[in-house]
Structure formats: C-alpha cells, structure tokens
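Researcher: Let's try something more involved. This one mixes different molecule types, so please make sure each is placed in the same coordinate frame as the others.
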Amino acid sequence: MRDVLIAGIGQVPVGEHWETSLRHLGAKAILGAMEDAGVDRLDGLYVGNMLSGPLSQQEHLGALLADFVGQRGIEALKVEAACGSGAAALRVGYAMIVSGLAEIVGVVGVEKMTEPRGRETTAALAMAADGDYEADHGVTFVALNALLMNRYMMEHEVSHADFAGFAVVAHANGVNNPNAMFRRPITAEQFVRSGVVASPIGLLDASPIGDGAAAVILASRDVVRALGGSRPPVRIAASAFSTDALAIHDRSDLLFLEAAARSSQKAYEQAGIRPDDLDLFELHDAFSIMAALSLEACGFAPRGGGVRLAQDGAIALDGRLPISTMGGLKARGHPVGATGLYQVVEIVQQLRGDAGHNQLPNPFWGMAQNIGGSGASVITHILQAPE
Amino acid sequence: MELSRHWRLQDQRYRLVGEVCDTCGVKIFPPRDICPECSKPAQELYTFSGRGEVYSFSTVYNAPAGYEEYAPYTVALVKLEEGPVLTAQLTDLGDQEPEIGMPVEMVTRKLRTEGDQGMIVYGYKFRPALAAAV
Amino acid sequence: MSDAHPATRPISGGRSVKSGRSTLFESESLLLRPHFPVGIVGYGAYVPRYRLPAREVARIWTGGKGGVPLGEKSVPGLDEDVATMSIEAARNALLRARIAPDLIRAVWVGSESHPYAVKPTSTIVAEAIGAVPNIQAADWEFACKAGTEAMQAAIGFVGAGMARYVLSIGMDTAQGRPGDALEYTAAAGGAAFLIGPADESLATITASYSFVTDTPDFWRREGEMYPSHGDRFTGEPAYFRHITSAAKTLMEALETVPADYAWAVFHQPNVKFPQRVARMLGFRSEQTEPGLLVGEIGNVYAGSSIIGLTSVLDMAQPGDRVLLVSYGSGAGSDAFDLLVTDKIEERRDLALLTRDYISRRTEIDYATYARFRRKLRM
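Model: All components are placed in one shared frame. Result:
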C-alpha cells in the first residue's frame, strides 16, 4: 500500500457562528486546508456530517461544498457515522488515495448545530442511538452516557468527583487554543458543583456542542513532492474502523468499548507500534466516562483503571500520555460531524511543531480516535511526524 | 408523525414480544432476523414476563423535544429475568430513589404525545415491583 | 297527578316507585336476566400512586377554612390515562381468570375521560392484552355508570351464548374544575371484570336491573374541559331516587331483603351519599364498609362502584351474597345481585388486591397536582 500524506490543514474556531451558514463554515475550512497545502485542484471531496438534514434542512453536502469551494465537477459525497462522521469521511478519503483511485482529495468535517433551538438539537442528536428502542423512550445522548457512567461508578467503586481530571486537563489545554470554544480553566471543585444534566453527568462532564468545520488535504507522496510546498507532510500510518451493537443495551459487555478495542488494535498493527509508543492521544472525550472507557479499550489502563489516569497527572501535557492537547471535545468543543477532523488537524499541528503554547516536545506518533454514538462506530487513525 | 412506525412496534411496546433462538436458545429482545449470539436465522416468537431489575439508571433533566412535559424523568437499563437488557423509563417512583439492582415490573404507559392534536404513543415502562401489601 | 313532584310521579306502567307496591310478576319482568347463567371469571382493580389530600384543595380555595367531603383522592401520573389504567386492571382480571386472552370476544371500556374523543380506548386495551383481532370492541359513556353498563352488555353477550368471555371495564381520570366542589373528589381509578360462564365464575351474577330517566344533574358539553353540575339537584331527585329505585326493584323481584346480603356497594361520589343511601335501604354500615373506598381514593367515576366490588371480592367468602348499585348522572342506576363461589379462594391472590394499590401512596401538593392534571398553560 502506498503512503497517504496530509498535505494541508484548515479549521474554523468552534463556537456559535450566527452569521455563517453551514456551507460557508465548510468552505472556510476546506479553502484554508487547500491554501495550507498550496493546491487549487482536488480529485474528490469527502464531507463528514451528521445532522445537516434535521438541523439545517440540507442534505447533498458533497455537491454543495464542492461547488462552493470552486471544485464543481469533482467526485464529492457526504459520509455519516453519527459523531464519528468526521473520521469516517477521513477513512473514505484515505481509501481513495491508498487505492490509487485518486491522487489528491479534500476531507472536511462540518456541523452547524445552533440553527434550531436546543431541545430540537438534543432530540436530533438522539438519532445516533436506536430510534425505536432507545430514543423513543426519552433517552438523550447524554442519558446514554449517564447510564454507562452510573454503572461504571457502581462496579468500579469510584465517585463522580474522580472523573474531574478529564475536564480540568481539557480546559487547561483549551486556554491556549485560539480555535477552542472554551478558553478558560476550570477547577475540580467547579466540576463537582456543576448542574446535573442527566444524573450523574453534570454540565462539566459533557462537551459543548457548537458550530465548526475542520479539513485536511490528503495526497499521495508523488503529488506532495510535486507540490513542493513548505509544509512538512504528516503520514497517516493507520486507519481502522470497527462497529459494535448500536443500542447500548445490546452490548455484550456494557463497560467495555469493544469497537474501540478492535479499531485501536488494528491501528497499532498497521502502524507497527505499541500503545506506549504513542506521544499523544486525541480521544473522544464527549463525556468524561467516554474518556475513561476509551483509555481502557485502547490498552492504556485495565478495566476500571481509566479514571485513575485522570487523577495522577498522566494525561496532562507533561504526563506520560497527553490527551486532548488542544482542549479535546470538552474545551475545544464538539461540533459532532466535524470533531474527527479537528482531532486530526490538532495532531498534525503537534507533529509539525505548530501547537504553540501547548507544543509537546518532539512528538512522533499521535493517535486520534473518533466515536460515533456511544461506541457503535469507532474510527482510529495513527499519524506519524514528518521525517 | 410516523403513524406506521409506532403501529408496527405494538407487539414489542405493549407486550414485550421478542424471540427465542431455535439454535442456541438465547432469548432476544427486540426481534431480529439473525440471532446476535450464534448468527443463525429463523427465530420463534417469545413473550417476556416483564420482570427484571435495574442494571443502570439516569434521571434526565434536559429533555429532548417531545418529552419536556415529563421532565425530570428516569431512564434505565433493565435486565429482564430471561436475560436480555432493554432501555426504558422508570415510572411511579414517587419519592422512591431508584437504585441498581432494584426489582422492577413492566407496565404500559404513555411514552409521548404528538402535541394536543396528534396521536398518543403507548409503550413499556418499568416501575418498582409491587409486592402485595399483606 | 300533574302537580306531583317528578320523584313521586308513577312510572313503569303506573307503578309508584315511592310506594314500592307492585306485583311479583311485574317486577320480575323488569329484571335483566341472561338465558345462560353467567358470572365474574376474573376481576382486577387499579388505582394510581399519587394522592391529593382534600385539605390541599381547601388550602388553595378556602384558605383552609372550608369543610372537606373526604380525606384524599387519587391522581394519575403524567404518563397515565384511561387506556393505560384499563390495561393494568385488565391484566389483573386475566391473571385471576387464567384464560388465554384470545378467547375474549369483546372488550368494552366505560369512561367519561377517554383519551381520544374519536378513536376507541377499547382497541388499545384489547391490543395490549393480546385479545385482538377476533373481538368486538367499543367505548361506553354514561357518566359514572359507564362501567356497569359495559358489564350488563357483557352479561347479555355471554348470557345469550354469543361469546364465552367478555371483558368489561369502568375506568376514569375524572376532571374537576379548579375551585369547584368536585375538585375535592374527582379522582382516578377503576376496575375490570371478565364475564364468563357461571360454572367458571368466582362470583355468579343472578340478575341485574336498570333504572333510567332524563335527569340533568351533571354533564359536560362537547369540547369543554370540565363538567357542570346542579349542586343540590344532584341529591334527592338524582342520586338517591335512582339508586333506591334500582335497588328496591331488584330486591323485590328476587324476593330478597337487605339482611340477605353479606355486602352492599353503592356508587360513592363522596363519603356521605353512599352511607345515607345504605341507611335508606335498610343496610347496616358493616355491610357497606369493605366496599366504601371514596374517603381514601376519591370518586373514580365510572370505576367508583365497581372498585368497591373488587374490594369486597378481595375479602368475601364463598356463599356471600353481594348487592352492587351504580349511579350515572343524566341519570340511571344499574343494580346487580351476585353470589360469591368457592372459586374466590384460589383466584383472589393471583393478582394485586385493591388494597395493595390503595396502600401504595405518594402524597402530592396542589402545585404538583396542577402540573399532573395539566392545569398549567404551557
């Protein structure tokens, strides 16, 4: 298989973009990535998005965005895997290059979440769950994670306060990311005191939803060499996708993310590395419980041990496994279908040495894991720094 | 309003009709075409007793559109005595605090209404198992 | 004759109800008696969990100074209505009857608070208990006697040999206008009876009798949220006249006297009316006490008299004779003579007792009641 390189990145700050529409958010990120890569022509465009239909009354994003970035005529389509839509689109773009079907493609994740009122957005997000057997029973997306967290706390005898470290670290890292939605630190005490959304999940367990778009340009090594750009290309060393039962009640083991374990295992094998070779991990901390479960499934902690990593400093920028280095979903924000691309863009920043105040010392391997639903679609990518 | 979708689910919503696998004997809810355990097709219908226990629960304070009038309400994973786990609301809690392991039983309640003019959707919820008082 | 009070005017072929004089032949011909003997094969009660004390209503509307007609009333939860409550009572009846639901040939639900104005409650109940599709289904309405009406129809259906089993339900989530006298009492609950062959019954039904006139004591116009009533006009010419007439005619025809009955149940809109009507007819308070639930659960309208009957069946002994008289405004009374059989002993504990529901109790305040009953404009 030939190498797939990330030739350029682009992103818009996550937030409430009242004056910017879905198409313009997406276009900004794509055009930013094209400029970063120094290209003006793409073979294809893959759009990661979950909710443009119910929230913006707009589907058919492939053709729409291709047209609005001046690429009318190219292959373009939307890829959907709930909150994992961004990384799912990246995997499609990766497949196009690795297979030789295309030489240079754009991948964008875009989500416009502030269009309707909050309760309608909440109801739309529940579409990631089983409609007939979860969402119809009034189960919100937060509630599904709360069901996991409540059981986790009982089985592993941990308290809600034990999860504070995930949010505290994410917010500390978000302070220095100009693209983050929340750029203020929080304390463990604030975490414990925050209002309850769906018990035991509080406001500061949950990542904020917002508008956002992030994009990458993928190309073969030949094309990157011909471009002769100044940006050192980052290599996608692994791309892996695994699924699990959609409804959490159908999982064989409620507190183990099987799909995250399988997808990360496949990714380690493809990249030829072990978990402790990684220098950073952009995980899917949509909720603090998801961060704990991801760390366990990806081999960084035994069952019930994920939450301990939030307590001993291991996940901070100077820890042995930095996570959410630019704020993660918790502080950078979670524009659902765009999140997977933000994760990858941020790892590229770290591997290029462009992460500003949050720059890690010479990172070489970075892993991004994007989760759709409460663990039903898990997409893992491992990126390798320029040589 | 998806009339036919709700109507199609009545056997499951009203009576917990699931399946038992012809091949491996596992009890399945809701019905599927292929057994999730042994991947064999063709299952027999099986009506669950409606008795079970709370496996996990969460009280929802931010209700989605369509459920606002019931907030706050408690959702749960209920492990049926025959094996499968399903997701449902707990009801009739009164002042009772839900807890993991609490015995519950199925009742049929309103799940939601489509405004004042739309249809009423009925389905299963679970309440603390009512033991006879004497 | 023309200046006589309506209550003393002769009816049914010149027979004076007030005098009670009539020949045996005349009154027996008035009885509703089935061709084949029938009875109650299974029964089930239902009362929701929440209770609004009458003093809470008084606190809001009389500064706590006014008198109250009962202790407290039952209030349905936000996710309950006549369909869901009927389903639970029906399931209890089926548990006691121990028959397959697909043997039922009719499901009839009597109520004045059907969830839909057009679309039957009975089809929802029938679907939920697994009785569809080989059934007759209908909703009944006759104020507080819609439940006993459905029972009489069932007796006819089974007694004529048209069906082996019919499910009859009386259930309500009654509405009372805020501040009105009815707000203290209008409650939620009811009962279901599976009517079938007498030889399978835990109580056989000897006969019934209905006494009906056009008496406008209480009504709700189409499209209105709350009913209206005639205050004291609901008493003598309405409740008392109809119940006493029905009870007397039934007992005359069957040649029984109050002392023949172990238990008697009368429609119970408040605590005083059923006690007074029992005295008027010559029943002792011990005979009515087990079926008198209104002080604890309120007036459950179409379920009011029949949930009194489930409470009696919960404790009755084989051989006990029971008198049941409903009352529905508008107006009419259905009177039934029942005989408890030895099957009661083995069936009684197959489902929750009426008392189990009454003991399950969470008290709420007026604000919560206002929310539960959707009195807040959203």
